[in-house]
Design a protein that fits this description.
2 copies of one chain form a homodimer.
Chain A lengths: L1 E4 L6 H14 L14 H8 L7 E5 L6 H10 L8 E5 L4 H9 L6 E6 L6 H13 L6 E5 L4 H8 L3 E4 L13 H9 L4 H16 L3 H15 L6 E7 L4 H15 L1 E2 L6 E2 L2 E6 L8 H6 L4 E8 L27 H17 L6 E6 L4 H21 L11 H14 L1
């Protein structure tokens, strides 16, 4: 994975500070160790799931679903997978009904994922589904050791898997939270982790990503008051759900009261898909307020030879320049053209990430790259990257409303 | 459709100016007249499409696809429609291959939508598909009268429909661009237009939406330097693609050089879906920089009676407060709870749109409401709402690259 920056940052002291902080953080933040985990227990668990099960259903929301969805939807269009994967992540009744129509309970296994075991969305849906299909063997619960949810699971004799220590939801895709549903669908989780490990080693062992990540993080942090919107412009439809994962990771980690001043700060993530969003959001980047940085993502090798035919259309001869061009080549030319147009503006920070291809190792790299970048920027803009106190107020109000109706 | 604002704007002169400008604009901007159009020609055209056709395929991008997609995806989960609707809107080869697998050429009709007839994405895909299925009777072209594309269509003896005058792509959903694919799928376009007309009349004929829209637009415009990110937080999965339509409408219309100063201004649109994005983006709104306004959208009546069962789960008794609650009631309680949490912050501009239900008239209202709001804000922040000069630079670079390879 190449990362070409079109901006610089030269204060070595800032970069050294960020690097040291992150190196230390490894002692108490759990996600850093995930690439080296022992996956044998996951495979052992997967072998307990009957071969007649053709659908995996995740009941979970936010960090419990976005990561697995990002990886699954990245790989799915390129390959026939072992099982289908669905996600119940909304209390929208129309959405629940539509999903139910796709599911055969007898051929499905349900993964109920909740750290606390009290997530309103997850348990509203679980109660509803369990009422329709009361076979505990069809459910696995993924939760904290000793949680009330684990106790419940044991009381009905259902399988339980444990979340690892000190790994927050939005950093949990490379733990059981993501790996179990992905492995059950036939995604190669060893390759996924090997990609993550490759980025981790490059960063911590003086590989080329160390300098790149530190420069990018320091630039974003220094200019966070001006360039406080960060657009990820991915030229591949397969990255649509990766963008959603990125939005949670970036927004929920970096939108905070500062640790030492309590000022409100935040970097706003926006996920875009090219070339489609050239026809939607590009105008605003090009001519709007100068508050946006843009990271382009392109896929070097789509493993695709589809070409635009050598055909002239009468009266539309100007389109002959497209003839014989591969679609894979075209989409990357489109990405390059827009990159050049933005660079010509001179006041829009731009960088490009080049992915080798569409496979597990590549998405593993991209995930760990963004996790490291988030941790670095969080440290430098002085926030606690790993909590989310701002979502509590709404939950408390909802609880009160629920009590009032009883 | 109710719209409750939790902020005020009292300068009557600004509002009067905006209202007069929009009233005048109707003389040369075409979208205002669309609610009253004669739809007989659209129905006549639809009757020419064989009943054996079960799939409509739009080849178009941006304004040529987002509007129809927003309406179709809003209605689809609630009803069995007459035909399926697919969109080819990317040059991503993996995406093209995946879509092709879903399509039976013999049972499909293709709508090629392009104002100019030179859109690179649309014609790369068209050339490819036409090479696979060379039957002109399977294609209809929607373009400007007299364009080279119309001449081509006539040369192969294919059907042609004309775009209306002075209606830009992102304002074209209520013209043939959106109405033809929707009518072919059995969506009631009369009801869609009647919804739009209802909002139009309320605005222009001193209905309650006149004051609401003017207040909201004036507030957004006055504070555009501070609250320059506008979040649309919709509590219904059915509005996911409406959000994408909104992002194009808002971003491409309002991200511009100002008319009189040439300063870069812009309002950045963000589409969110609740409750899912409470677990992703809400933290940033609650504790991040105070640069965001939030519009909540809720559906008053989901026409759904699904309830959470009256069941106690051992060790999880705290969840009993959910028992017997309808999902429709729950999702709206979640919306109300987050609204109250934001209002308690006191420095986040919030308003709520309440949709009656999920049907054509409702989405017609919502569309016209946002079109009017966009026009009003564009006038007040001094931009040309209807052009998009910023996207040309990338196109010119791409053309040069295409020529260079020849």
């Amino acid at each position: 994975m190449l990362n070409r920056l079109h901006f610089t940052f030269s204060d070595e002291k800032t970069k050294q500070h960020a690097f040291n902080a992150i190196r230390q953080e490894q002692q108490h933040i759990g996600y850093y160790a995930l690439p080296e985990q022992n996956t044998a227990p996951i495979h052992d668990y997967c072998n307990t799931i009957n071969e007649t099960v053709d659908t995996i259903v995740v009941i979970g929301i936010g960090g419990s679903s976005l990561g697995a969805k990002a990886v699954y939807e990245f790989i799915k269009p390129t390959r026939t997978l072992k099982r289908k994967l669905y996600f119940f992540e909304s209390t929208d009744p129309v959405n629940i009904a539509a999903l139910l129509e796709k599911i055969d309970f007898e051929k499905s296994h349900f993964l109920v994922i909740s750290k606390s075991g009290t997530t309103v969305e997850t348990f509203s849906i679980y109660k509803y589904l369990f009422n329709l299909h009361r076979n505990p063997a069809s459910y696995t619960f993924i939760t904290d050791p000793g949680s009330p949810l684990e106790q419940y699971a044991k009381s009905i004799d259902a399988a339980v898997l444990h979340l690892p220590d000190n790994v927050g939801g939005r950093f949990s895709v490379l733990s059981v939270v993501g790996l179990v549903p992905l492995a059950l669908c036939g995604i190669d989780i060893e390759k996924l982790l090997s990609g993550a490990k490759c980025v981790k080693e490059s960063f911590f062992s003086d590989g080329y990503l160390k300098e790149t990540l530190l420069t990018k993080a320091a630039f974003y942090a220094k200019h966070h008051a001006q360039y406080h919107i960060n657009c990820l412009f991915a030229y591949s439809e397969a990255l649509k759900y990766f963008c959603e994962w990125y939005v949670q990771l970036w927004g929920e980690s970096l939108g905070k009261h500062q640790r030492h001043s309590a000022f409100n700060v935040g970097l706003t993530p926006i996920g875009l898909i090219g070339p489609k969003d050239q026809h939607s959001f590009l105008q605003l980047i090009m001519e709007g307020t100068r508050d946006k940085s843009v990271t382009f993502i392109k896929v070097e090798d789509f493993h695709d030879k589809t070409q635009i035919p050598q055909r002239t259309l009468e009266h539309l001869e100007s389109l002959d320049v497209l003839n014989g061009l591969g679609f894979a080549e075209l989409i990357n030319m489109q990405c390059d053209s827009v990159t050049e147009a933005l660079l010509a503006q001179e006041d829009i920070p731009v960088d490009t990430l080049v992915l080798e291809s569409i496979d597990e190792a590549t998405i593993g790299k991209l995930i760990f790259y963004y996790e490291l970048l988030t941790s670095l920027v969080g440290e430098l803009i002085d926030v606690n990257t790993y909590d989310q106190p701002g979502v509590e107020a709404g939950k408390i109000i909802l609880k009160q409303k629920l009590k009032n109706r009883a």
